[in-house]
Write a structure and sequence with these properties.
five-stranded antiparallel sheet, Immunoglobulin-like, six-stranded mixed sheet, mainly beta, 32 strands, 3 domains, 47% strand, 478 residues
């Protein structure tokens, strides 16, 4: 009896031992802390193979670049797992500038039985990110992770922002976890992105591409003409902005409009307005710091046409030049400028004291020349062409009683020699018909002041009366 009891106890103990070993084995299989089975595989490779995620070069001629990573995972058993991504080393260039991770856009795809935790494009985060959770049976999967970088641009395609130029390097860690959180496998990818130097000047949207003052009358201030320019640069250090009159303002005949007659006011974003006369070459900013965040420059132009500026349409070109430390890092923006000066040809006649012009000889002594009377003649012109001045009488002197004075009763002549050539002697001569008294030079120089002196001789047999006529002066081409 005793031996049978011992056997039964022994068998029972063996069964308990086997049950305990079985329970330990199940716990070991479920626990990710167990030694890694050789059947477990987890790889992350770039498009060109290896552990380098090379995003290529980004610049003015390639505004989008990308890299494709292939992730393969096999737990080696029917166990659920998940995959995470962590930016383990920030992307930094050779000058220490850090690239904001959110410049990188991720998109995860795959024909999978699990769950993609990134739905659609998502920005890279500095924090650990869940990429994928497998099915409960832990099916082997093959996933594609597309990483891309794009420079933001306006509808016109112009770049609006860019990271600092340089080569950025960092690292991403991909981890395969058991569903309980234990690490099964880890893969590290080195990341590289080259950002080319970018320096761009563009006209802001909604502003004209030329500066047109329209038609301007001399000695009057024009309406302001405004343009706005956007600056983008990712160069380290400083850049300089210059304002240059590339092509002087000239009309059809080659007459030049003085650049100093144009006033320029400039304002950078958040800065103060400065105003000064334009010159051939101007530095609008001694140095603009890194303007990778776009800066805007507002330019306001006003002008006054000088009094004797020649007529015509004046056209020229302004150039804005944004440059870095080398001539290769430069962008230029050319802006046409134009204005029209209307042709002016005017004749003004006044008395020597500035009053209304009149030749009043009073009551001269019959048979003798009267006292001299004077008129002041002014000619304004900007045509650049020669002109001549003619004088005549509309009719002879006629009294109220109908008697007329002889046609040669009135004698006139210029009293001063100015620019041009006098066509009448300095002593008065009869004004009976249309006669030439002044001819300008070949450039049509305005006549600032010409005195015409006149006298009248009344015959002795003239009836007492008031005699009147009209003395006429006319401007004509030669």
């Amino acid at each position: 009896m005793m031996s049978r009891r011992v056997r039964r106890v022994t068998v029972k103990r063996r069964r308990v031992l086997w049950l305990a070993l079985g329970a330990m084995l199940c716990a070991w299989l479920a626990d990710g802390s167990r030694p890694v089975d050789a059947a477990v595989t987890f790889t992350v490779t770039g498009l060109r193979g290896g552990s380098l995620a090379d995003l290529g070069s980004l610049g003015p001629h390639r505004q989008t670049t990308h890299e494709e990573l292939t992730i393969t995972a096999n737990p080696g058993a029917a166990l659920q797992y998940r995959i995470t991504q962590t930016l383990t080393r920030q992307l930094i260039n050779e000058r220490g500038a850090r690239l904001d991770p959110q410049w990188i856009i991720l998109e995860l795809t795959g024909n999978t039985s699990g769950t993609l935790r990134i739905q659609g494009p998502a920005r890279l985060s500095s924090m650990p990110t869940d990429l994928f959770v497998s099915s409960v049976t832990g099916k082997a999967e093959r996933l594609t992770l597309l990483a891309s970088v794009s420079l933001p641009s306006a509808p016109s395609g112009t770049i609006r922002d860019a990271p600092q130029a340089g080569t950025y390097t960092g690292s991403l860690s991909y981890v395969m976890h058991s569903i309980t959180g234990s690490v099964v496998r880890t893969q590290t990818m080195q990341v590289r992105l080259r950002v080319e130097p970018i320096i761009i000047l563009t006209l802001a949207e909604g502003f004209p591409s030329r500066i047109s003052f329209g038609t301007l009358v001399p000695d009057r201030l024009s309406e302001p003409r405004t343009i706005r320019v956007q600056l983008v640069s990712n160069l380290p250090g400083t850049v300089q902005l210059e304002h240059v009159l590339d092509d002087p303002m000239r009309n059809q005949r080659g007459d030049e409009f003085p650049v100093s007659a144009i006033e320029l006011s400039s304002t950078f974003t958040g800065g103060e307005r400065t105003s000064r006369p334009m010159t051939q070459r101007m530095t609008l900013s001694p140095s603009v710091g890194n303007v990778s965040t776009p800066s805007q420059l507002e330019l306001v132009y006003r002008t006054v046409v000088p009094e004797h500026q020649a007529a015509g349409m004046y056209r020229g070109t302004i150039a804005l030049s944004l440059s870095g430390t080398t001539s290769l890092n430069r962008d230029r923006l050319r802006i046409p400028m134009e204005l029209t000066v209307p042709q002016i040809l005017s004749l003004t006649i006044q008395s020597p004291d500035g009053g209304q012009p009149e030749l009043n000889f009073g009551s001269p002594v019959l048979g003798r020349p009267s006292e001299l009377k004077a008129l002041v003649i002014l000619v304004k012109t900007n045509s650049g062409r020669p002109y001549q001045l003619m004088h005549s009488l509309s009719r002879p002197f006629v009294g109220k009683k109908g008697q007329a004075l002889p046609s040669d009763a009135l004698q006139c002549a210029p009293a001063l020699r100015l620019d041009g050539s006098l066509q009448a002697p300095l002593s008065p001569v009869p004004v009976s018909s249309r006669g030439l008294i002044y001819r300008s030079d070949l450039h049509g120089t305005p006549l600032d002041k010409l005195f015409m002196v006149c006298q009248v001789t009344v015959p002795q047999d003239t009836l007492a009366d008031t005699y009147r006529t009209r003395y006429q002066l006319t401007l004509t081409p030669p």
